[in-house]
Structures are given as C-alpha cells and as structure tokens.
Design a protein that fits this description.
8 strands; elongated; 4 helices; two-stranded antiparallel sheet
Length: 177
C-alpha cells in the first residue's frame, strides 16, 4: 500500500471496503461506498428526516400534506371525501376541437389556425392558402408573398429572355429586337 492515508472505509459493518471516492450519507453523516449509500442499503436510522414523500390525489392531482405518524392512504381518502375539487365535467373537456376544413383531412388542432384569405379553420399542414386550395382571392397567398413571387419571376424572365405572364395577363417578350 503506497498511499494508506487516502480514501475511507465504508461504515457498513459487513463491507469495510476502502473507497477512494467515499460518499457521505446526508441523513446520518456516515461514510459509505457506492454499494451502501442508499438509505435502505445501510439501514439508515435517520432516513425519516430526509426521505419525505408527498402523496398526490389521484382525482385532482393536488399534493396532500401528511403529518408525521399519519398514514398517507387515510389522509388521501379523507381529502377525496371532503376537500377534493375534482370535477368530472372538466375531465371530459376536449382539447383538440378545431377540425381542419380541408376535404379529406381529419386532423384537429388545440388552437384555431385561421386562413387570412378565406377565414377558414385549418390544421398546421393546410394552414397556408396554397395548401388548402383557397378560393377567396385571385392569388392565394399573402400580399408580401405575391410581391416576392412577382419580383422573382420578373428577374428570371429578364435574365433568360423568356416570355413571362404578368398579373395583368398580357404577354411580354424580354429579348432585344
């Protein structure tokens, strides 16, 4: 043994393993190895100070305070009989109630997703006017989107010399004569 002063021995009587990374129990203050650090593993007499669990009502999901010496099941039962704010009608409320108006789509959303063009309610997949065949306007997209497409098509037509169809419907030929 080159460094006998390093590490500590496990406080568990049957173990006494020399551990170079000992762990100290936060309830009793004794030093243990990794195999005996849990309260149950070393039968900690002070575990009741730290091992506190708060029962939760199965109906209303509220934490139920339990005093020392009381049986949690009895306290939760008394809460369910007297103080429980469980509402069966609230349980049946549906969250996903906004059905998509796109024909053939059965998706429902938590929030309304309303199309700016036609005012219809759609799912996330069909929220854009091009995705649900919007019939409200002549160009089914936002004004900014339509302007961007128009600019892109005009620059593409000018650079390739192709024939373009602007929004007024007249044909143009962008080649020099």
């Amino acid at each position: 043994m080159e460094l006998p002063w390093l590490g500590q021995h496990c406080s568990e009587r049957a173990c006494k393993q020399l551990d170079f990374l000992p762990l100290k129990c936060d309830a009793c203050g004794e030093v243990f190895c990794k195999d005996h650090i849990r309260y149950d593993d070393h039968k900690c007499s002070s575990a009741y100070k730290k091992n506190v669990q708060v029962p939760v009502c199965p109906l209303c999901n509220a934490p139920i305070p339990v005093q020392k010496g009381e049986i949690p099941d009895v306290v939760v039962g008394a809460h369910m009989d007297k103080d429980c704010k469980y509402n069966p009608a609230q349980q049946k409320q549906r969250i996903f109630t906004n059905k998509c108006l796109k024909p053939g789509c059965k998706r429902k959303e938590m929030m309304k997703v309303v199309c700016e063009q036609c005012g219809g309610n759609f799912c996330i997949k069909h929220r854009h006017p091009l995705d649900h065949d919007c019939k409200r306007s002549s160009h089914p997209m936002s004004k900014a989107g339509y302007a961007a497409l128009t600019r892109a098509s005009q620059t593409a037509f000018k650079s390739t010399g192709a024939i373009g169809v602007p929004s007024n419907g007249s044909l143009q030929h962008n080649r020099c004569r």
